[in-house]
């Protein structure tokens, strides 16, 4: 049993908000704000940070906020309190996604402590993986982690199916690369070297000249028309890793929020065992390709995330907005 050294509702609220800012988000847009009232935190989507063209419906924005919500829940448990959560509490305020209140005192179990320890360590990977395998038992445990939050994580095992997902990713990336709207939106969130911005994707967080995986999973072209990007990394890391699809039975805002919570639980669990994730959301931003994926590979469920899980030794720094910028 892990009893917090000091415990107070105020400290639990502060810990939850501090932790939430480390959640993953598309292009590191960090599309969330928090309002604190006593022992209660309101999580709101920040529509100004939504991708206007890539995420017109706000699905990726809400998935990102779901990841922040799970992070808050985990941090509050680690601080010694059970979170009392209400999702989508007010139909007249669509930006208000959840309210988290400090609940009864509780001692965090080992699983909570393990997940909480990874909140600031977890990193998104944007290249190939080493040839080291992800243990089958870990993959099975990640599937259970996703299910515990209401989503389904399906490893794509058949080589032909992996090839299909890779081909869809290439097709979506190729189409988006020819669309000036998508390209300009992408480079808005690509930070130049030496930038002091606390959001977006740093130039050192993706390779300048990415090594192709086999089959090839196309990466976002953050270095479009410039030579930004990192020269570091393992040039021999060409492994695809374990390809996995995160799906939900429905495609409502509640499903998107649940998908984000499942995603973050999976990512923190994987990180605790040295496994990182690379994301490929291009397919999910194109309605026809997403529908094809749903019908052909997702058994009719709605794909909310495409990821590759693998092992890398290419450590990167992470940037996040300060807490004071998130409170409103």
Automatic annotation (TrEMBL):
- Which keywords fit this entry according to its UniProt record? Flavoprotein, FMN, Oxidoreductase
Taking the record's annotation, the residue ranges forming a coiled coil are: none
The Nitroreductase domain covers: 9-42
Pfam families the record matches: Nitroreductase
Region of interest (Disordered), residue spans: 193-212
Which SUPFAM superfamilies does its entry note? FMN-dependent nitroreductase-like
Query: Record's InterPro entries?
Result: Nitroreductase (IPR029479), Nitroreductase-like (IPR000415), Nitroreductase/BluB (IPR050627)
Q: Does the keyword Cytoplasm apply?
A: no
Protein name as annotated: Nitroreductase family protein
What species was this sequence derived from? Nonomuraea ferruginea
